[in-house]
Design a protein that fits this description.
The protein is of the alpha+beta class and about 575 residues long. It is about 35% helix and about 20% strand. The strands form 2 sheets. Strands 4, 5, 6, 8, 9, 10, 11, 12, 13, 14, 15, 16, 17 and 18 form a 14-stranded antiparallel beta sheet that branches. It has a 4-stranded mixed beta sheet with strand order 3-2-1-7, with no helix packed on it. Strand 4 (about 130-135) and strand 5 (about 140) form a beta hairpin. Helix 1 runs antiparallel to helix 11 (about 510-525), helix 6 (about 390-415) runs antiparallel to helix 7 (about 420-435) and helix 10 packs parallel to helix 12 (about 530-555).
């Protein structure tokens, strides 16, 4: 059972308990009930025009046929392969002079949680990423192993705050006019790499860029990380679609695409169309993606396609780095949703909540210099304070409904054989006493999108990755001691116990749920992110005083004058 399935089950159980508590199993009404008076920031907007003015060529089937490579230089004349390094405070990239392939993408600001050393996004044993091919008619010219000259030969060393620098790879065919050049522009302060180049001597070929065989595992829980591994793309008309590794099969995804990406739980390798969002036209959108069996065991390989322009020029951008919400939002084109929050039918509702929660967490952490564990505790208490008016409204509505129920039963018994009169009298009762059978539930449903958004934020927020708190080694993964899920279950039991004890006549069904529901929630939450457990347990503890207040209000109903009907209207 994966994390999302567990969470769906938890939400269903919570809804069931809430519904049965407020509707099916209300506290027994005493003989003398009381009167009712006794009681934004949305994610980044898509900036691209989603209706290209002309069709975009897609990957042809020829891309998967046997390739015809350029005539190679004799083996003895091949130069020695060299590795060229580009380093900055954020990353260390290592390229090969053969094929201009990327062999290492180390994240300097992050550590692997499953081994010692550096966090490299390129899996061990990979043949190198970003190798390129050109489709010309029915042939595919493979450039992924040919020798390139590199400028500057010594690579690049970038210091924070400096201007961007460029690394150029050039291949000149020894016996023809064919020349291929790729230039990478690196900034020391961002993970975005701007790529441009030319393919001269060919008539508008299709450029294929190898994005590789998925990203390396870097988390302590490899099974959890495997469930998040996959590829994602943003289609110009159809929007964002994701496929996880376990569901991957050979396929051709037809464009036009704004971007395509490989992702694991926290990191990303993405290719974005054009030099910038504003400059992208229908002609240079990505033509599509080719997904096929990978070169590494149990991996898949993704290749991106785009048309080379009339002058032989092409351009695109790469993002190789963490799934940082602010960074990805700044890229536009909904890049912050590369790891979609929630299910497709619910994402429109969740997006503003996810954006708001993430921004508040980061703001409180950075402004007040608080660890994220304490931020989550403050968030749990703060949410209950903010939602206190809603819960008060739900409580008052529930008490009012309880007080009206004897009158409702009286009407139902009196007019059970006259449906028309029964309907008329029930509407009159609703009007006189403001009765709403779901009034006790609806205010409690409003915070649920926030709770669901918390689940996805805590599961995939890079800011919580590897962050310890008290005995917890990592707020983004489960509690290895299971103390928090147990505490969460106890807090749920106490909340239900307080409500149960406030009933004049205990309800056996509710008593059974009081003992069954908390253990089920412990089982569900024991493998969810400890940050989510910490927030939810804190919110439960902060709710108990309010539950005690509601219990006292229920007790006050006993022995008070019952509600009566308004005198009949002589003209009615």
């Amino acid at each position: 059972m994966n994390s999302q399935t567990r969470f769906v089950l938890a939400i269903t159980l919570m809804f069931l308990v809430m519904l049965t508590t407020n509707v099916l199993f209300p506290p027994v009404i005493p003989d003398a009930p009381a009167s009712p008076d006794s009681a934004s920031a949305e994610g980044a907007e898509v900036t691209a025009d989603r209706e290209p003015s002309e069709p975009v060529p897609t990957i042809p089937e020829v891309a998967t046929s046997p390739t015809a490579v350029p005539e190679r230089v004799e083996a003895e004349a091949l130069p020695e392969e060299r590795r060229v390094v580009v380093s900055s405070p954020l990353y260390r990239f290592e390229f090969s002079s053969f094929g201009a392939r990327l062999h290492a993408a180390e994240m300097s600001q992050f550590e692997p949680l499953n081994h010692d050393g550096l966090l490299d996004l390129i899996p061990a044993g990979a043949e190198g990423y970003l190798g390129q091919k050109l489709v010309v008619g029915s042939d595919t010219l493979d450039l992924s192993s040919v020798p390139f000259t590199v400028e500057p030969e010594g690579g690049l060393v970038l210091e924070a705050g400096e201007d961007a620098q460029r690394l150029r790879f050039t291949y000149q065919h020894p016996t023809s006019a064919f020349r291929f050049e790729t230039e990478y522009e690196f900034s020391p302060d961002e993970y975005t790499v701007r790529v441009s180049g030319t393919a001269s001597g060919l008539d508008r070929p299709l450029l294929l860029t190898d994005l590789g065989d998925g990203l390396a595992f870097a988390e302590a829980d490899s099974a959890m990380e495997a469930r998040e591994m996959g590829y994602v793309y943003n289609h110009v008309q159809e929007g964002i679609e994701e496929t996880i590794t376990s569901n991957t099969e050979r396929t051709i995804i037809e464009g036009p695409l704004l971007w395509g990406a490989l992702r694991n739980k926290f990191f990303l390798l993405a290719i974005l169309a054009g030099e910038s969002n504003e400059a992208t036209t229908a002609e240079n959108y990505l033509g599509g993606l080719l997904v096929e069996e990978g070169r590494l065991p149990e991996r898949f390989q993704v290749t991106a396609a785009q048309v080379v322009g009339d002058e032989g020029a092409f351009a695109y951008r790469l993002f190789v780095g963490p799934q940082d919400f602010e960074m990805l939002s700044a890229l536009g084109w909904d890049m912050q949703n590369v790891n979609p929050y929630g299910w497709s039918f619910f994402q429109t509702i969740l997006k503003p909540f996810v954006s708001l929660i993430t921004r508040i967490l980061i703001y409180v952490h950075s402004t007040f210099n608080l660890g994220y564990g304490w931020v989550l505790i403050l968030f749990g208490v703060g949410m209950r304070i903010v939602l206190f008016p809603l819960n008060q409204k739900a409580m008052k509505s529930q008490l009012k409904n309880m007080a009206v129920q004897p009158l409702m039963k009286e009407i139902q018994d009196k007019y059970k054989d006259n449906p028309e009169k029964l309907t008329k009298e029930m509407k009159k009762l609703y009007t006189e006493h403001g009765f709403n059978p779901f009034g006790g539930c609806l205010p409690m449903l409003l915070p649920w999108p926030m709770l669901i958004a918390f689940f996805f934020v805590f599961q995939s927020t890079i800011e919580l990755r590897g962050v310890p708190f008290l005995w917890l080694p990592d707020l983004s993964t489960k509690d290895p001691t299971y103390v928090l899920p147990l505490f969460l279950g106890v807090s749920m039991f106490l909340m239900q116990y307080v409500s149960f004890k406030s009933m004049d006549t205990p309800n056996p069904q509710m008593k059974m749920m009081m003992y069954i529901f908390p253990p089920m929630m412990i089982f569900i939450f024991m493998n969810l992110a400890s940050g989510l457990n910490l927030y939810y347990a804190t919110a439960n503890v902060a709710t108990i005083p309010q539950q005690m207040y509601i219990a006292r209000e229920r007790k006050k109903m006993q022995g008070m004058k019952p509600l009566g009907r308004s005198p009949p209207n002589p003209n009615g």
